[in-house]
UniProtKB/TrEMBL annotation, chain A:
Residues 74-259 form the ABC transmembrane type-1 domain. The lineage of its organism: Bacteria, Bacillati, Actinomycetota, Actinomycetes, Kitasatosporales. InterPro entries: BP-dependent_transpt_permease (IPR050366), MetI-like (IPR000515), MetI-like_sf (IPR035906). Its main location: membrane. It holds the Pfam family BPD_transp_1. GO terms for cellular component: plasma membrane. This is Peptide ABC transporter permease. PROSITE patterns: ABC_TM1 (PS50928). The keyword Transmembrane helix applies.
From TrEMBL, chain B:
Gene3D superfamilies: P-loop containing nucleotide triphosphate hydrolases. SUPFAM superfamilies: P-loop containing nucleoside triphosphate hydrolases. It comes from the Bacteria. One of its GO terms (molecular function) is ATP hydrolysis activity. Belongs to the ABC transporter superfamily. Keywords: ATP-binding, Cell inner membrane, Cell membrane, Membrane, Nucleotide-binding, Translocase, Transport. Its main location: membrane. CDD domains: ABC_NikE_OppD_transporters. Residues 14-27 have a biased composition (Basic and acidic residues). This is ABC transporter ATP-binding protein. It comes from Streptomyces populi. InterPro entries: AAA+_ATPase, ABC_Ni/Peptide_Import, ABC_transporter-like_ATP-bd, ABC_transporter-like_CS, P-loop_NTPase. GO terms for cellular component: plasma membrane. Residues 1-49 are annotated as: Disordered.
Automatic annotation (TrEMBL), chain C:
Pfam families: BPD_transp_1 (PF00528), BPD_transp_1_N (PF19300). The keyword Lyase does not apply. One of its GO terms (biological process) is transmembrane transport. This is ABC transporter permease. Belongs to the binding-protein-dependent transport system permease family. Residues 122-331 form the ABC transmembrane type-1 domain.
Amino acid sequence: MTRRVLALASGRIAAAVLAAIAVLALFGPLLAPHDPLATGDHPLAGASGAHWLGTDYLGRDVLSRLLDGSRVSVLGSLEVAFTALAVGAVPGILSVHLGRVFEWVTLRLADTLVALPFLLFAVAVVALLGNGLTQAMLVTGALVSPLFYRVARAATLAVARSPYVEAAIVSGASTGWIVRRHVWAKVLPPIAVALAQTVGVGFVIVSSLTFLGIGVQPPAPTWGGLLASDLGYLGHQPWAPLAPALLIMVTVWACNLLADAVRDVSGEAGRALTGRPGARPDQRSETAPAPSGGV
Amino acid sequence: MPPLSEKLLTGTAKAERAERAQEKTPKATEAARTAGAGPASPSGPPSPVLALRDVRIGDRAGGREIVHGVSLTLTPGSAVGIVGESGSGKTLTCRAALGILPAPFEVTGGSVEIDGHDIAGLFPARWTDLRGATISAVFQDPASYLNPSIRVGAQIAEVVRVKQGRSRRAARRRAVELLRSVQLRDPELVSSQYPHELSGGMLQRVLIAVAIAAGPRILIADEATTALDVTVQAEILDLLADLRERTGLALVVVSHDLAVVAQLCDEVLVMRHGEVVEQGSAEDVLHHPRHEYTRLLIAEHEQYGLEKFRTPEEDA
Amino acid sequence: MTTTEAPAPYGVPLPAVAARTRHTLGRVLAALARSAAIFVPVFLVATFVTFALRSLSGLSPARIQLGEEATPEAVARVEAQWGLDRPFLVQYGDWFGDVLHGRLGTSWTNGADISTLIGLGLAVSLSVAAFALLIGVVAGFALGTVAALRRTTWVDRAITGFVTVISVMPAFVVGIVLVTVFSVGLHLFPSAGYVPAEQGLGPWLAHITLPAVALSFDVVADVARQLRGSLVGAYRENYVTGAVVRGLSPRRIFFGHVLRNGLGPALATLGLKFPALVGASVVTEWIFGLQGFGRFANDSAQAGDVPAVQGVLVVSIVLVVAFNLLVDLVLARVTPASRRGV
C-alpha cells in the first residue's frame, strides 16, 4: 500500500511535507540558530541575517522558537491519533463479533463521544486534572475515537457479511483466527486514512490548546503560543503570525492529502467506509464524516 | 409440439398485423440493406413519429464506433422490437433517440427524426418540450427511475402540471386517473406512497403512468419487464399492448428476450455487437430466420424457454 | 392471465388510512423518538462523566476559598457546606435533579449563580454561532452547488481548491488573520468586545462579524464539499434520467429532484459540525475578547471552578442535542428516504 500511495503525486507531496515536519520534531532544537529562551536587546525586530524570522516581544529568535516548538505539536498529534486508534478500533472490530449487548453499549458510547465538543472537553479536563499536554491529548484521543470505532466496525461488518467469512465460521474457525486472517486486511486501509486525518485534527487541537496557554508552561515555545503572543503586537508586526500559521496549515493539509491518497489507492471500499464523499443520508449512523481541520 | 415461433406470435400479434407487415415504405431505404422488410403501416402511409436512419454511435474519446447503423421507422400505433444480448447496442440506440446518451458516447452518423424534427439541431429547451409530450420511456429497475423522496402521485402530477399546464388540483386528480388507467388497484393509496413502499410490478406500472402522463406519441420500453417475475411481466406486456390499441401509442420495445418482443411487435430488429443482423416483420424473423444468430436465439428459447409452460394461456 | 389478480404486487398490506397517517404526523414523531433514543443515553453518560470529573480532579472549593495553607478541619467544614462529604452517587443524584430543573449550582470562586453566568455568555456565543452557521450554510451552499453544476470544469477545480485551503485553516488562525487585516490594518471592524443587539443592530453585527467569519470557514468547507459530493452523486442517479425523459426542465430537475436528495448529507454534516463550532468558540472568543460561553468555560477551567465547568459541559451537551434534534427533524421532512436504512 505504501508503494502505491507514493506512486501518486499527492501521496509523494504529503509524505515529503510530513517527513520534513518529522525532521523538525526530531532535530528541531539542534537546528535552532539561537537559544529559543534567550531574550535579546531587539524586541519585535524584522527579518534579518541573524534572525531570519525576526524576534518576538522579548527579543527571542522566532525561527528558533518555531523549530523548538515543533516537537510538542508532533508528539501531541501522534498521541491523539494513536490514543483514538487504541480506544476506538478494537471495540469497533469486536462490536461485530461479541454479541448484541456489547454492540449496543459501544454504539451508544460512540454516539455520546462524537456529540461532545471535544475542544471544550479538552480544555475542561486539562484544567481540572492537571495542566499537562499529555492528559489533554489522551482525552482528545478518546473523544475522537468514534471515528476509528465506526471505520473499524464498518469494515468488519463488510467482511463479516461476505461469504468467505461465513465459510470460515461454518468450518469452525475461532473468532481470533477470523479477525487475524480476514478482517485485518480489510480494516487496515480505512484505519490508515482515519489515522492521517486524526493526526491533522491533533495538530489543530495541540495548536489551539497551546494558543490558549493550556498544557505547556509559558517560557517553553509552542506554535500556538507563538501565535498567541503575536496577537498582542499585531500593530507592530502584522506579518508575524504568518510563519506559525502557515506551518500549522501546511501540516494539516499534508495530513488530509495523505488521507485522500490512501483512500484513492484503497479504492471504492476505503472510500465508502470513511464516509466522505457522498455518504447517503440513510447511512448517517454508520458513516460519520471524519472531523476535518477545524475543532 | 408446434414450433416456438408460432406460440410466440399467436399471443398478441393479431392476424391483421401480420398481413400488413410485408408492406414497404419508400423511406426504408436503409432498412432494405439488412432484411428488406419495411416498417408496418396500418392504412395508407401515415407520417412516421420516429425515424432512425443509419444511426451510428461512437465513443468520442476512443474514436471507436459502437453501433454501426440502425434504421427503423415507427408509425403511430405500431410497435418495433429490438432484440439482442447485453452490449449489443440496443440500449444506446434508444438513448440516442431520447437524446440522453451517457458522457463518452455520441451520435457519429445518420439521423434521428422525432415527429418530423431532426434531433441533431435541437436546442435544450426544445428537447425539454419534446420529451414527455412526444417521446417518453420506461426502463428496467423502475424503482431507481423514480425520486425516492417524493410521493408517487406528486411525481406524476408534476409532469401533468408542467407539461400540460393544469392546475395543482387537476394534476393531482389526473395522477390518480393515470394510476387507475395502468390498472393499479387502489390508485389513491398508491398515489400517496413513496417508491420504496411499492413492489417491482407496481413500480413499473407507476413508471408507465408517469411516462404517458403528458400524452406522448412514442414510448420506448427498454428492458421494461426484465427484472419482473413472469406473471407480472405478462401483465405489463398486456398493459403496453392495451395502451397501444387504446391510445395509438407507438412502441419501441427493447429486450434480450425474444418472447417479449414477439408478443408486442410488428417489426423486429435483431442486434449483435452493434450491428443489425436481421430486420423484418415479427412473423418473418421468427418463422424464417435468415441469420445464424437469430436462429440461435430461437433455438435457445425452445431449449430453455420455460415461460411457455408457466403461461399456458399463451398457447393457442 | 389467471394469476393477474394475485395480491403479490401489493407489498404494503396496511389499510389506506393507517398508511397516510404514518406519512404525516408519524414521520415527525418517529424522527423525534429515534433522536431521543440516541440522545437520552448520550445525555446520561455525558453528565455522569462530567460529574465524575470533580472526584477525579481532587479539587475542592476549600482550596479556592481558604488557600493552600488551610487546616484540615477548615477544609472539611467548607466541603461539608458544599455537601461534598456525602456519598458520590447521592451527590450525583442531587446534582442531576437540579440540572433537570435548570439549576447548575453556584460558582466556587464567587458564589454567583452559574445558570445566570452561562445565560449571559450564551447570548454572545449563540449570536456568533448562529451568524457563523448562516454564513457557513449560505456560502457553503453556493460554492457546493456551483461546483456541482459546473463539475469537472475549471470553476469546479477552483472551488475545490479554495475549499481545501479554507478547510485546513483552524478557527484561531483565521481569527488572527481577520483581526490583522480588517481591524488592525483596515480599521473596518472593532477588534474586540461585544455590543448586545438591543443597543443597535449595526454595532452588534460589527462586533460579531469577524468571529462568526472565523468560525464559519470550517462549516463552509464541509457544507460545500458534502453538498458538491452528494449533488454530483444525485445527478448520476437514474431518477434524474427519468425526470429528463419526462421532459422536465434542468431548473426544475435541480430544485425539485436533485437538491431535495442531495440536501440530506449536507444537513447531516451541519449536525456534526455544531459541536466543533461550540468547541472552537473557546478560542475565537479569546481572540476577539468576547465574554461568551467559550470564554467562561476557559476561565472557569483555568480557575479550577468545578461546578462552573460542569455547568458549561452540561449546557454544551444540551446545545448539541437540541441542535441535532432540529437537524433530524428537518432531515425527516426533507428526505423521508433517510428513514429507510435506520
